[in-house]
């Protein structure tokens, strides 16, 4: 029997494939479709304290090789997602879901995490340090001093399982510096990568999304080599008790297989889920199982992190 089940921290999941934050996770209706699919779990749209409409439309565009977006954190607000998650954890006591969060300021981030700490929420929290699309707000994770300060402050009061959503890094020294910071804190997972920030797509001499004169986060096929490099660079540098969620450039079961080879314990699908809908989870799971069968693997732990190098 071939199984694609996995673990993040102390939680078990029946499948290692799920949605990436931002896709099929805005409201209960979308989340329910992921819940009732083959996905192992879901992550909610990154929530801020208050409801946000986000940037003007069009703000997302599928392209031949991926997608570009500048959504601007449209979300239904912290309470909406927390209430739904609390409802689901009563209904499905054996399942674990991921709650994605970030404040528009450091203070708001602390407000959100203190609310989680004081709630009955028993799942995983993903702190999004990598939103590239709010005009005037730089990505937190590209500022290592701010990242370390926030984590230091958070772990003074927060003791539930927490992970970090990271942007792609592009320099080996940055992998070293970032990993050194993450290794100081009791985080349960890191998620690599968010979109490659501030790309530009042009059609007929014109940008394809309205916010920020067309600049937006790039996802899909374009980003797979960057995603794999980030997963593997951190796999080699972070404590072994920190799990990695691999996100970026997953179109097929082979892409999931490669993320796991690089060290991912869970793999998220964004652009391809947007293009194909939640049936994508059964297609890609079947493709992954077919590869595992050909190679004689019965569980993902048999090849996770075992990327081969040249002599
Ligand atoms: C948005 C985009 C992101 O990549 C992210 O991590 C959070 C929010 C957005 O534009 O809504």
Automatic annotation (TrEMBL):
Cofactor binding, per record: Binds 1 FMN per subunit.
Subunit and partners: Homodimer.
Annotated ranges, domain Dihydroorotate dehydrogenase catalytic: 5-292
The EC number(s) this enzyme carries: 1.3.-.-
Any GO BP annotation: 'de novo' UMP biosynthetic process
Active site: 131 (nucleophile)
Cofactor: FMN
This protein's UniProt keywords: Cytoplasm, Flavoprotein, FMN, Oxidoreductase, Pyrimidine biosynthesis
Pathway recorded for this protein: Pyrimidine metabolism; UMP biosynthesis via de novo pathway
Family membership: Belongs to the dihydroorotate dehydrogenase family. Type 1 subfamily.
Organism name: Streptobacillus felis
Presence of keyword rRNA-binding: no
MF (Gene Ontology): dihydroorotate dehydrogenase (fumarate) activity
Record gene name: pyrD
Residue numbers binding FMN: 45-46, 128, 165, 193, 220, 248-249, 270-271
Lineage of source species: Bacteria, Fusobacteriati, Fusobacteriota, Fusobacteriia, Fusobacteriales
Protein name per the record: Dihydroorotate dehydrogenase
Top-level lineage group: Bacteria
Gene3D superfamilies in the cross-refs: Aldolase class I
Reactions mediated catalytically: (S)-dihydroorotate + fumarate = orotate + succinate; (S)-dihydroorotate + A = orotate + AH2
Biological role: Catalyzes the conversion of dihydroorotate to orotate.
């Amino acid at each position: 029997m071939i199984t694609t089940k996995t673990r993040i921290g102390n939680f078990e999941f029946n499948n290692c494939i799920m949605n990436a934050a931002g896709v099929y996770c805005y409201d209960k209706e979308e989340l329910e479709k992921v819940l009732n699919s083959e996905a192992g779990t879901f992550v909610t749209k990154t929530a801020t304290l208050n409801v946000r409409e986000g940037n003007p439309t069009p703000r997302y565009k599928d392209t031949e090789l991926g997608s570009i977006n500048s959504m601007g954190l449209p979300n239904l607000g912290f309470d909406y997602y927390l209430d739904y998650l609390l409802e689901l954890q009563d209904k499905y006591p054996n399942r674990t879901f991921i709650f994605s969060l970030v404040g528009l300021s450091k203070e708001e981030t602390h407000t959100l995490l203190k609310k989680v700490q004081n709630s009955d929420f028993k799942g995983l929290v993903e702190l999004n340090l990598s939103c590239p699309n709010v005009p005037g707000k730089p990505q937190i994770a590209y500022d290592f001093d701010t990242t370390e300060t926030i984590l230091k402050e958070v772990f003074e009061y927060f003791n539930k399982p927490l992970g970090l959503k990271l942007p792609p890094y592009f320099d080996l020294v940055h992998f070293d510096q970032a990993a050194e910071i993450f290794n100081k804190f009791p985080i349960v997972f890191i998620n690599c990568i968010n979109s490659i920030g501030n790309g530009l797509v042009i059609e007929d001499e014109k940008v394809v999304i309205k916010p920020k004169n067309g600049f937006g986060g790039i996802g899909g096929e374009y980003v797979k080599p960057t995603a794999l490099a980030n997963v593997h660079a951190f796999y080699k540098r972070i404590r072994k008790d920190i799990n990695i969620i691999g996100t970026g450039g997953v179109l097929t079961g082979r892409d999931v297989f490669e993320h796991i080879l690089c060290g991912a314990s869970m793999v998220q699908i964004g652009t391809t889920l947007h293009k194909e809908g939640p049936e994508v989870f059964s297609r890609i799971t079947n493709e992954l199982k077919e590869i595992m069968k050909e190679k004689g693997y019965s569980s993902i732990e048999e090849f996770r992190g075992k990327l081969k190098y040249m002599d």
